[in-house]
Amino acid sequence: MINKVVLVGRLTKDIELRKTNSNISTCTFTLACNRRFANAQNGGPTADFINCVAWRQSADFLAQYASKGSIVGVEGRITTRNYDGPNGKVYVTEVTCDNVQLIGSSNRTAPVQNVAPSSNQTFTPSNEASYSENDFEDEFSNTPSLDISSDDLPFY
To answer: In this structure, are residues 97 and 35 in contact, taking their beta carbons and an 8 Å threshold?
Structure first.
């Protein structure tokens, strides 16, 4: 069975680093991931807000280098948990991050950093790509149509 998630989105707020009783770093954050197509009702872009949790070096890295609006790439797995809340059972579904990469920053003058949490590599700047909404349109929208009759098809 496969449980693999790859996301790229913007952080909805600054990272708050916490430590467990055994001094392990952790942080929870929400990524706003744009949907490919615009909302049909209001014509504007839509986004999904995905809850994520990072541990150890990934959490430390995010707390140090990422801020609200930063573009972050996440590789991880979907996890579920539940606990007893004041109004009954609370069920939580989130992405547990295995790898985190800072792709862009809300501050355009800041260098962009890369890290794989399991490695001891130094942080190195990388190029930040800039995209417009038109870059994510249907890739077949500008393709000319083909004039094919049903007789030309090998099946029908």
So the answer is: no
Q: What CATH number does the domain containing 107 carry?
A: 2.40.50.140
Alpha-carbon span 11 to 35, nearest angstrom: 15
Averaged over successive runs of 10 residues, the pLDDT of the chain (156 residues) comes to: 95 94 96 80 80 96 94 96 94 95 65 41 36 44 56 56
Domain-embedded: residue 96: yes
Q: How large is the C-alpha radius of gyration of the chain? A: 20
Q: Which pair of tokens denotes residue 148? A: 């094919």
**Residue 156 counted as domain residue:** no
Token digits for 128? 């930040």
Retrieve residue 18's tokens. Answer: 């916490």
Tens digits of per-residue pLDDT, 92-117?
Answer: 999 999 999 999 766 544 444 444 44
Burial 34-71 (b: 16+ CB within 10 A, else e): beeeeeeeeeeeeeeebebbbbebbbbbbbebbbeebb
